[in-house]
Amino acid sequence: MDFSFTEEQEILRDTAKRFIQNECGTEFVKQLVDGNREFTDEIWQKMVELGWTSILIPEEYDGLGLSFVDLSVILEEMGKGPLPGPFTSSVVLAGETIRLAENPQKAQHYLSRLGAGEIRGTLAWAEEGDLNMWDNINLSARVQGDAFILDGRKVFVPHADQADFVVCVALCEGETALFVVDIPCPGLKINKIDTLDRTTSLCLLDFGSTLIPRDALLAKGKSAETVLGSVLNRINVAYALDMVGGGQKVLDIGVEYAKTRIQFGQPIGAFQAIKHKAAELLMEIEGARSIVYYAAWAQDQEGTESTVSASAAKVFCTEMYRNVTKEVLQILGGIGFSWEHELHIFLKRAKCLGTLFGDVSFHREKLAVALNY
C-alpha cells in the first residue's frame, strides 16, 4: 500500500507554501495581530484563482470535485503562516454543510458562488453555557406563516463578520435543523468577540426574533444531525492539520534559533538537553502528522472511522501543538516572551483551535462512546 501523496498533491503543497511565504508571511501576520493590517479581498481572490475555494465542490456546481486529502496538504501549509482569514470557515464549515445536505436548490444557489469566490459563509454551532454539549441547542426556530422566526444567540462563530451567509444549527419542532441565513439579515446582530487569537475572528450572533423565509431550511431531523456530525468531523480534522503545520513551523523556529544562539562559546543546539528536546518534539509532530493524514483520508470514506479518527486527531494535535509551543518557548528563553517575536501568535492559535468545535475532553468522550468504553 502506498501512503505517499501524489505528484499533483505535492504540487498543491508547493504552491501553498510559496503563497503563504509571499502573501501572508510572518511580517504580514504580525502587523495583522497588531491591528495595522487586515485580511484583504485581494488575498482572497488570489486563493480563488488558485482554485482552492472550489476543491471540495462537485463538478456539477463548477467545482473541482477533489478529495479532502487534496485539501489537507493546503491546510497544513496554512498552519505554518499561520494564515488568517475565512478560508476554513467558508470552504469546510459552510461549503461542506451545504454539499452534504444534498439539497439541490441550496447547492445550486450557493456552491458555485462559493467556489468562484463571490460569497463566503460559516457555521453557527456553539451556544452559551457548555460549549461542548452536542444537545446544547437553544436557538429556536418556529413557523410563522410562510416564514421561520429564529430566537436565540450563537457564540464563537468563525469569521461571521466576513461572511455573506451563515448556516445555523437550531431546534425546530423538537428536532435539530439547519437553516441558511443570508447576511445582512434584518434583526440579526453580529458582534466580533475580543479573543486571545487575533488570526481567527470569532463572533457572537444575536438573532432576536429574526424572520427568515421558509425555504431557508436546509435539513431537519436525522439528516440534519448526520450532516452536522460529518461537518464537525471535517472541521476538527482541518484544525488538526493547521496545528500540525503550526507545530512544524514552531519547531523550525526553535531549531534555527538553537543553531545561532551562542552560549559558553558554542551554539546552544550543541547541548544534549536541547538536542534531545528537539528530537522529542519532532517525534511528537510526526506522530500527529500520521494521525491527521489518516483522519483526512477517512473523511473521504465516511463510516465510523471518520468520527473516531477525527476526534483522535483533534486530541493528539491539540496536545502536540500546545506542548511544542511551550517547549520551544523554553529553548528561545527571554526573546520568546517578547511581543516582537512571532512565537506568541502560534501559542495563542494553538489554544484557540484546540477549543473550537470541541476541546480535548469533549473528543475524548466521543472516542470513549464510539469505542464502547
Keywords:
373 residues; alpha+beta; Butyryl-Coa Dehydrogenase, subunit A, domain 1; Butyryl-CoA Dehydrogenase, subunit A, domain 2; Butyryl-CoA Dehydrogenase, subunit A, domain 3; 3 domains; 52% helix; globular
Spans of at least 5 consecutive residues whose pLDDT stays below 50 are none
Largest sheet: 7 strands, mixed
CATH class category of the largest domain: Mainly Alpha
Using only CA atoms, what is the Rg?
21 Å
> CA-to-CA gap between the ends?
31 Å
Number of E-type strands: 12
Q: Helix- and strand-based class?
A: alpha+beta
- Tally of domains: 3
CATH fold topology of the largest domain: Butyryl-CoA Dehydrogenase, subunit A, domain 3
By CATH's scheme, which homologous superfamily of the largest domain applies? Butyryl-CoA Dehydrogenase, subunit A, domain 3
Which range best describes the helical content: under 10%, 10-25%, 25-40%, 40-55%, 55-70% or over 70%? 40-55%
Specify the number of helices.
11
How large a portion of the residues is in β-strands, by DSSP E? 15-25%
Shape: globular
Judging by the overall fold, what is the CATH architecture of the largest domain? Up-down Bundle
- Please tell me the overall pLDDT: 91
Summarize the structure.
The chain is an alpha+beta fold. It has helices at 7-23, 26-33, 41-49, 68-79, 87-101, 104-115, 222-260, 272-299, 304-332, 343-355, 360-370, and strands spanning 121-124, 140-144, 147-151, 153-158, 165-172, 175-182, 189-193, 202-206, 210-213, 217-220, 262-263, 266-267. The strands form three sheets. Strands 1, 2, 3, 5, 6, 9 and 10 form a seven-stranded mixed beta sheet that branches.
